[in-house]
Amino acid sequence: MTTADLPRFTGDAAPFGGGDPYADHRTAEFPFAHLADLADRRLGAGVIAANDEFFAERENLLKPEPAHFDPEAFGHKGKIMDGWETRRRRGADGTHPFPTDEDHDWALIRLGAPGVIRGIVVDTAHFRGNYPQSVSVEGTCVAGSPSPGELLADDIEWTTLVPRTAVGGHAANGFAVDVERRFTHLRLNQHPDGGVARLRVHGEVVPAPEWLAALGTFDLAALENGGQVEDASDRFYSSPTNTIQPGRSRKMDDGWETRRRRGSGNDWVRYRLTEQAVIRAVEIDTGYLKGNAAGWAGLLGRDGTDGEWTELLPRTRLQPDTVHRFLLPADAPAVTHVRIDIYPDGGIARLRLHGSLTDEGERRLRARHQEWGG
Measured between alpha carbons, how far is residue 28 from residues 164, 234, 349 in Å? Predict the structure, then answer.
């Protein structure tokens, strides 16, 4: 699907009339929204520079929660907005009061996990008449931890991911991206000025093979190491991708929780690992899930998308709000995918699958990294 196939939002939103500030928020179901947010602050992403943040600071762009709106919140600079907002640009003089077509504001974003980008959402929630007329997004791949000055140097190559495109106020403006390259940093441009509430960058993590090789044993399912949720039986209360986020869960909705199941069956999540690997140790964490933790859990693994599922961990009783640790047998098979089955429903906070890549898995990871320009 291309950007042209996605719903488009342009023009002002109606002024806030009271009541639910999100009631008229314009959005759509984007086909890439199930993928990890590479700009998630929890992965270590950051807005490292902006040319202007007069009304609202740039860091708001990457907050994981939806933008908040308080109609009575004003400060010494004016209305307090939960987003990144710049001052109004002006022309050179009274005869030419408007900015030129080239004038624009920008922010530099360091992705929390480098990867291939499949879609971008520029959300102007609550910016109804003070959003940018249009936006554009560029990406680059720079090793290490470059400073803003180094990223803005003339020898840095920037690739257009979203061409300059008109956007709408109080809307989630989605853009499909089809550039098959690995990126580490983005430059968000708003033309000529205005405010953006949130930036989401959906894609697939492409970790550095040399880093994982140095680690030897690591969490093969972790988002930051290239693990990914492929599918799940239920996402009613919270996303299964939470189970492979960094760190421990800090509250109940920071894990994966399903609706209450009635009758037979069970819930499950299917993961794709960093690459083919052998798992040695497993952690199943039910932190903050007390009256709604899964009662039992089991693990299956397979090698390849068409491989047969093999039991890695038999169905085992779980306790609420507890970290459970299991050692797998020394003859555990090499796998590329793992499925956790929980019985009958409920949730888990985190799943950690500690192990090492096989020689074949490391070879394929290096080849893919090179193919995507890493």
Answer: 21, 20, 28
pLDDT at 5: 84
**pLDDT value at residue 3:** 84
Enumerate the β-bridge partners of residue 45: none
Higher pLDDT, 224 or 4: 224
**CA nearest to 352, candidates 288, 298, 281:** 281
Please state, for a pLDDT cut of 90, what percent of the chain lies above it.
93
Across the chain, which distance is largest between two alpha carbons, in Å? 79
> In the numeric block, which tokens belong to residue 37?
């947010």
Q: Which of 198, 164, 201, 200 is nearest to 183 (CA)?
A: 201
Residue from 254, 117, 269 nearest 199 by CA: 117
Conformational region of residue 356, where left means phi above 0, alpha means psi within -120 to 50, and beta covers everything else = beta
pLDDT recorded at residue 1 = 67
Burial class (CB in 10 A: 0-12, 13-18, 19+), 261: middle
Q: Which residue has the tokens 């939960």?
A: 82
Q: Is the Cβ–Cβ distance between 197 and 332 less than 8 Å?
A: no
Q: Partners of 183 in the beta sheet? A: 115
Is 358 exposed, middle or buried, given 0-12, 13-18 or 19+ CB atoms closer than 10 A?
middle
Tokens 């990890």 correspond to: 36
pLDDT at residue 2 in the model: 81
Beta-carbon-side half-sphere exposure of residue 253 (alpha carbons within 13 Å): 5
| Residue 53, token pair as written in the block | 């943040």
Q: Is the pLDDT of residue 263 over 90?
A: no
Strands 195-196 and 84-85: antiparallel
- Output the CA angle 30-109-81, nearest 5 degrees: 75
Asked if the peptide bond before residue 240 counts as cis, ω within 30 degrees of 0, the response is no
Residue 190 · residue 307 · CB < 8 Å: no
Is residue 9 within 8 Å of 168, Cβ to Cβ?
yes
Helix (H, G, I), strand (E, B) or coil at 302: strand
**Other CB atoms closer than 10 Å to residue 128's CB: what's the count?**
20
Query: Is 196 in contact with 131 (CB distance < 8 Å)?
Result: yes
